[in-house]
Write a structure and sequence with these properties.
By secondary structure, this protein is mainly alpha-helical. The chain has 2 domains: 58 residues; 54 residues, Alpha Horseshoe (Serine Threonine Protein Phosphatase 5, Tetratricopeptide repeat). It is 77% helix and 0% strand. It has 5 helices and no strands. α1 packs antiparallel against α2, α3 packs antiparallel against α4 and α4 runs antiparallel to α5. The chain is elongated, with a radius of gyration of 21 Å.
């Protein structure tokens, strides 16, 4: 719950920032000189790029959370079997061992979105965020193409 609150607060701050930056772009364009118009257009485009990125990130998170709910309902969420340091951080060797099992599970069932979901969690636990994201995107694609209802944005 704390992560959701943080996400929504940061998203709201970004939206306010996008509005402020966009208004500065308009002001620059209104100056009317060639250089200020060029800068104004460049500044005005930045909020649209940011909004697009925020939208796609939000959709990804919603779809991943939906898969997590489906997997939880099936009783297939991976258990937390990781050892932790006294400070609460995940032990690297423990994460690597779990990752090896999840990778083998995915190699045995490469068309199962559930194994890709669990592999994404293992990548995340091993602190490999780019691969975790790619594995989760693959799980979302497999789930959508498996004849199940595509992940909604709700």
């Amino acid at each position: 719950m704390r992560a959701k609150i943080t996400y929504f607060v940061l998203a709201a701050v970004l939206v306010v920032y996008f509005v402020l930056v966009g208004s500065r772009g308009v002001l620059l364009i209104q100056q009317g000189t060639a250089i200020t118009v060029a800068f104004g257009i460049a500044v005005f485009v930045l909020p649209f790029i940011g909004a697009w990125f925020l939208w796609h990130t939000t959709q990804f998170a919603r779809r991943a959370n939906r898969l997590a709910r489906v997997l939880e309902a099936e009783g297939g969420l991976p258990p937390d079997e990781l050892k932790r340091t006294p400070a609460g951080r995940i032990d690297r060797d423990s994460a690597d061992a779990v990752f090896a099992r999840r990778r083998a599970e995915t190699e045995e069932a490469p068309d199962d979105w559930r194994s890709w979901f669990r592999l994404a969690v293992a990548y995340h636990d091993a602190r490999d965020t780019p691969r975790a994201r790619k594995a989760m995107q693959h799980a979302i694609s497999l789930h959508a193409s498996a004849g199940t209802r595509p992940p909604s944005s709700r």
